[in-house]
Amino acid sequence: QKEVEQNSGPLSVPEGAIASLNCTYSDRGSQSFFWYRQYSGKSPELIMFIYSNGDKEDGRFTAQLNKASQYVSLLIRDSQPSDSATYLCAVNSQDSSYKLIFGSGTRLLVRP
Amino acid sequence: GAGVSQSPSNKVTEKGKDVELRCDPISGHTALYWYRQSLGQGLEFLIYFQGNSAPDKSGLPSDRFSAERTGGSVSTLTIQRTQQEDSAVYLCASSLGLVGTEAFFGQGTRLTVV
Fold first, then answer.
1. What is the pLDDT along chain B (114 residues), one digit of tens a residue?
2. Nearest-CA residue of chain A relative to B32?
3. Using CA atoms, how far apart are residues B28 and B95, in angstroms rounded to an integer?
């Protein structure tokens, strides 16, 4: 079983819609959770991080964490074509010597 | 430097040759990661350093791959007797190495084995 799992997609949404990206993780001791965005041919860049159960909002982005279900999601409101990219979920914990573990990413396509 | 620096940015080598890829992390970052990404694929974990030690080398695909880090700073990834399947983008990232601290990525080295 992979430690961090994501649906590879592509997830296709129309411009202006809400895109919902999901990630599950296997290590119940995971403590912090990150969402990275990677444009084609570029390096990943951090969008958001979350530590506590519940929601965290930053502009059009909302990260949601449910530790009991070992589930973290990223919502993108008012999706734009420029949001089209691969979104990577990552987790780390003290138990893993703080190693950041990445999922394989979900490709998002926002149709104009 | 201001960010993670990798060199060279592009490398073309002949099959069977050895290559060295360099990563210069953000100053003060104790954790350093190497990943490999083939075209259209996800990040493949190679190795993770905390300081100069490597708690996790589990991702190195074969004994042709090795990495070292000296002085808790610069790291080199060495691939011996390169094969065509080694062609990929090699990404380095660094972080403060604590829970809750993000990793910052370099721009990568694109390796092509011909």
1. 579 999 999 999 999 999 999 999 999 999 999 999 998 788 888 998 988 888 788 889 999 999 999 888 999 999 999 999 999 999 999 998 877 788 999 999 999 999
2. A99
3. 9
User: Least CB-CB distance to A32: which of B43, B97, B99?
Assistant: B99
Contact A98, A92 (CB under 8 A): yes
**Nearest of B43, B38, B46 to residue A6 by alpha carbon:** B43
Chain A to chain B, count of Cβ pairs less than 8 Å apart? Answer: 63
What letter would DSSP give residue A17? S
The answer to whether B64 touches B57, Cβ cutoff 8 Å, is no
Chain A contact for B71, CB < 8 A? no
Both tokens assigned to B42: 């996800």
Q: What is the pLDDT of residues A72-96, one digit of tens each?
A: 999 999 999 999 999 999 988 766 6
Q: Which chain B residue has its CA at the smallest distance from A105's CA?
A: B42
CA–CA distance, B20 with B1 (Å, rounded to integer): 21
| CB < 8 Å to B52, chain A | none
